[in-house]
TrEMBL record:
InterPro entries named in the record: At5g01610-like, DUF538
Protein origin, superkingdom: Eukaryota
Gene3D superfamilies named in the record: At5g01610-like
Signal peptide as annotated in the record: 1-20
Record's protein name: Uncharacterized protein LOC104737542
Cited Pfam families: DUF538
Gene name tied to this protein: LOC104737542
Keywords assigned: Signal
Length: 167
């Protein structure tokens, strides 16, 4: 769940003042834009092809070619729709849509991500879970998460399921 916020966290904003960005342009990537709002790149999986952001409101959209699903060893299944959206500000993603986490037998929407120092808090509305920021230094890959052959980090291995109990 933690990497999803990742949710999360994908970035594109619409309005007359909004701008669209593709991977081929000289404009910052969605991942570097996340960093400019004090978020680690790993809250978004690899594969964002474009984003838009309204800098006056913080409204964003991030686009993938397809939906993106993966499992994190020992913990969660995550699903990103082909378009995710929400509002971004320094240390906060709110009103997120398009990102889900499977907790036990239920798919829950991740609705908010807050960075508090060296921790990331992910909220599904009814409960939230905190994770160390170090677990988001690398972006997971659609399909295989961190179990891909080229992944350097094995984040979440042996992770318990903090969403099971309310905080």
């Amino acid at each position: 769940m933690s990497h999803l916020t990742i949710i999360i966290v994908s970035i594109i904003f619409l309005s007359p003042l909004a701008f669209a960005v593709t991977a081929e342009s000289d404009t910052p990537t969605a991942y570097s834009l996340l960093q400019s709002y004090n978020f680690p790149v790993g809250i978004l999986p690899k594969g964002v092809v474009a984003y838009d952001l309204d800098t006056t409101t913080g409204k964003f959209h991030a686009y993938f070619n397809n939906s993106c699903s993966f499992s994190l060893v020992g913990s969660y299944q995550l699903n990103y729709k082909s378009t995710i959206s929400g509002y971004i500000s320094e240390n906060k993603l709110k009103k997120l849509t398009g990102v889900k986490v499977k907790v036990l037998f239920l798919w829950l929407n991740i609705v908010e991500v807050i960075r508090n120092g060296d921790e990331m808090e992910f909220s599904v509305g009814i409960t939230s879970a905190n994770f160390a920021i170090q677990e988001f230094l690398e972006s997971p890959q659609c399909g295989c998460g961190f179990e891909c052959k080229d992944s350097k980090l094995g984040s979440f291995a042996g992770r318990n399921t903090p969403f099971v109990s309310s905080s």
